[in-house]
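Tutorial handout. Part one gives the primary structure; part two gives the three-dimensional structure as tokens.
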Amino acid sequence: MRFRVRVPAATRVTAVVTAVAAVSLLLGGCSQTPAERLEEWYSSGGEARIRKLNEDAGRVNEVSMRTIDVQGPACQDLLAQTAKAEKLDPIPDEAAQRYWKEALGGFRRGAGECADGAAKKDGNQVSRGITAVQTEGLPKLVSTVTMIKAALAHK
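Part two.
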């Protein structure tokens, strides 16, 4: 036995219009230009995260000649900021993303080694970690920012 449900024509039209609008919205969201996607990433958390990483890495650099009790907390802060940055969506620019990933890796390794060395009171390990932050993380972060600014300037 079959039951037929009669749906008023106005309801059918509304359902079709709603479905078409939803599909258009979905497809329209996909049509952003690469520069628009990059600008969206940058303005929706990317810029703030880059600034915070730069501040914390700069602080590690500033305390590099101080004592372990000052260096350790600076490295811990950078390590925490790095973990937050790693949770961001990838940068929608291939070259910038490559530098970003390398910067985060340098910060993770360097700040981790520094923090671990500080916990052990091992000055040599702290120095190696700080050096990694300075030579692996910071230059790659600068490259990331340079790539992003260049891409946004050409939009």
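Part three, for discussion. The radius of gyration is 24 Å. The chain has five helices and no strands.
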